[in-house]
Specification:
heterodimer; A: mainly beta; seven-stranded mixed β-sheet; 11 strands; B: mainly beta; six-stranded mixed β-sheet; five-stranded antiparallel β-sheet
Chain lengths: 116, 113
């Protein structure tokens, strides 16, 4: 079956531009996570959705970062006024339920954002 | 504060050898410890995972060893193959109703033919 998909796969933005990154989770998955992976580092948590509700946004690095999942499926991560330090791979992951026994997260291929 | 520390940063192993990657954690509330494998241009993929009620879990050539008192866990890859060449991440999460993963910094493994 189809896995998690993300688009675009690559995005080059000039400093100050706004960008929108899309995530299509596995159909029926309740939980959706966004992670940021800097070059040579492990992924770091940004935000979490349970269906359409954003339950945790503690990892968002600044108020320039905004995420939504209005219908509980597709999610968009928006970065306003991009800065060079925003350059990273943005990973989306989904899991079947929000219950404590469902830890397996399925990751998409990521969007590589380069801010010039 | 780095909650999950991973070592080594890189590792070269000959084909057929044993690859060993170590991780240590600080938060005693963590109760789920997965290992992820990531190939270039791909997202991380779950390889194997363990919970602290057991000290070892084996799946094929991959084994996790877990030491709760030392707050350490490790991945052993037996009979390493060139196709195992990838970046490996340990991670940890706690039972909070949803499982946000805290990752180590990764180990780049190269298995030489």
């Amino acid at each position: 079956g189809a896995g998690v998909s993300q688009s675009p796969r690559y995005k080059v933005a000039k400093r100050g531009q706004d960008v929108a990154l899309r995530c299509d989770p596995i159909s029926g998955h309740v939980s959706l996570f966004w992670y940021q992976q800097a070059l040579g580092q492990g992924p770091e948590f940004l935000t979490y959705f349970q269906n359409e509700a954003q339950l945790d946004k503690s990892g968002l690095p600044s108020d320039r970062f905004f995420a939504e999942r209005p219908e509980g499926s597709v999610s968009t991560l928006k970065i306003q006024r991009t800065q060079q330090e925003d350059s990273a791979v943005y990973l989306c992951a989904s899991s079947l339920t929000s219950g404590s026994l469902s830890y397996e997260q399925y990751f998409g291929p990521g969007t590589r954002l380069t801010v010039t | 504060q780095q909650q999950v520390k991973q070592s080594p940063q890189s590792l070269i192993v000959q084909k057929g050898g044993i690859s060993i990657i170590n991780c240590a954690y600080e938060n005693t509330a963590f109760d789920y410890f997965p290992w992820y494998q990531q190939f270039p241009g791909k997202g991380p993929a779950l390889l194997i995972a363990i919970r602290p009620d057991v000290s070892e879990k084996k799946e094929g050539r991959f084994t996790i060893s877990f030491n709760k008192s030392a707050k350490q866990f490790s991945l052993h890859i037996m009979d390493s193959q060139p196709g195992d060449s990838a970046t490996y991440f340990c991670a940890a999460s706690r039972d909070s109703g949803y499982s946000t993963l805290t990752f180590g910094k990764g180990t780049m493994l190269l298995v030489s033919p």
